[in-house]
What does this fold into?
Amino acid sequence: MKVLLPEGVELQGFERELKTTLEQAQLAGYALMGFSFREALSSNLHQIDALVVMEPGVFVCLEAKGYKGKWTGSANETWFSDNQKIEAVGGNPYIQVERYSLVIKDKLRSCIFQDIPFWVNYFVVAPDTTKFEIEGAVINTFQSGRAVQICNISRIQQVLGSIRTRENVAAKFNEVGIEKIISELTGISLKKIEILINRQPIDPTLEPPLVEHPIPVVTTLELPPVGHTISVDPSKKLPHNKYIHSFKILSCFVVVVGVGIFAILHYLNQKSCETATETRVNNICYKDITKKPLVVGIVTSPKQYSEFKTYLKKQLGSQAIDVVVEGNSEITYKEAQNNISKYKWDIVFANSPMNGMQAKDNSYKWLDRMFPKYPLTYQSALFVRSDSPIKSIEDIKSTTTIALGDFNSASSFYMPAYDLYGTSMTVTAGHRSSKIRELVANKQADIGAVVYSTIKDDPQFRVIQISREIPSTGVYLSPKLTPTVQKQIQNILENAPKKIKEQANYDTGKEPDYEEFRTIALRADQVLSCANFSRNPVQFFCNTTSQRILGRVAGFTNQGNGMIRLRLERENHKTCQVFVSSQTLNKIMDGISSEIINRKQVNIIGVEPIKLEDGTCQLTIENPTQLVVLQPGA
It folds into this structure.
């Protein structure tokens, strides 16, 4: 393995020992040491001791701690070496390196693996003489998932070599290339990365060869008078300078190569694109809006964007042949997402985080925030008529009818599907929010799912379930437009009159973080893959049993050996002792911990409880899909 260091950086102490160990490891890849890594969505920098990038798609963060005593502590507590505190960012080395892995994961997801699930592993590296009494730690062995993983320095090669990756990750890794991936991670140009990779270490034992004859000193010559000739003795040869001669040859070679490269680049930029409506800039073909209309994609009424269209067209002038608005309030989110993935829409008013994620995953550029008058997040709600006998999800039966929205709607489909995990009920889907409220009001549906704010103050309805926070969304710009046009459109939208912005429902703002919601959507997808919406009742689970236990976590205890005991208070005022490993718990919602889950309402699916003599029950969760966190709690 080759270690890459920024120019001028020298490592000291235990980091230097780690560098030597990695250099001696017989592994295919590179270790980046001494680099600062910027977060994907901010200017925050993180100094990671070592980021290992290995073929065919393995990423590992290493945090080197040179403490040689006996380490004690746990995943959520300060670590000590004998009686000395082990200094770390965020509390302890595990929290520190885990945080770094998330920074790298976000970076890779934003630029390489947009639509491919992958993992960034992480280890705390310790000297060989160190002993460990870290609660729940995995020592010198790779274990998938979120675990406290520690490795003695001499075991680095063995541990790193045991990590495997998925085929689709490997395929994408090989497609992009390891040098390009390192360039994206470090923010350093590909050319400089190649220089770092090919740079040879200086061997101090080698000295430059001695020159036998000194190079003649060139002095200023006084030119003879006009018409005067210089006589040269033919028996004497002019001195021959081999260095000057070699320099002339090299100069000619550089000129020839330079001219050749310029000619090739000029040819490529002059070469026509495959379609007549594209233009080539820096050897990349972009959409030419002087030949093909600029398309604004929406999922609401076109009337809402009539003045925006007129304004945009006027500002672009002759630079755009036309501006058209595509879409309406009847278009499905699936159709919208297909238009985004095929780059049919140049400007996307996403209107939903589902469409926003689709734009982000297809390298669209964030421009502005939609719904600027509302909070950055919102919630979905399951609601019933105020006179309904249904009080909670516990009252749902297979004959209960629920009205859901579009199959790709965050608030009226994905969130309800997540919250209804484990139920079986009659479903009518594909409705707009107004239709869902109408169905419930007219008793054509028992339960409805809409944005919480739209019904929370309506006296004819009663809310029975509020979802997790859903991120807002915004306006995105296609990567198929030239950088110049992108910048121009960005300025036009930012400088639009207030009235135009209000009608088009956008304004300046920060791009939302979709990552937690993405995890929810993936979990909902897993559930929905087992559900058959062509036949009622629909089962919102994949287990063969529908055993379901609803309750609120009211305290937890670390049992040791990585096991956690949760105290679950059920709605029938009975309690259950729920045993779950920290590894399984960490896989729920991409890294939820016992502290985070405490005091939250949960749904336990497909686990048969053991009834105890005192009237309580006991159960063990072995699969992360068996526990669903229903709401944030307080």
Remarks:
- Residues 553 and 599 are 5 Å apart (CA to CA).
- The two ends are 49 Å apart (CA to CA).
- DSSP finds 17 helices and 34 strands in the chain.
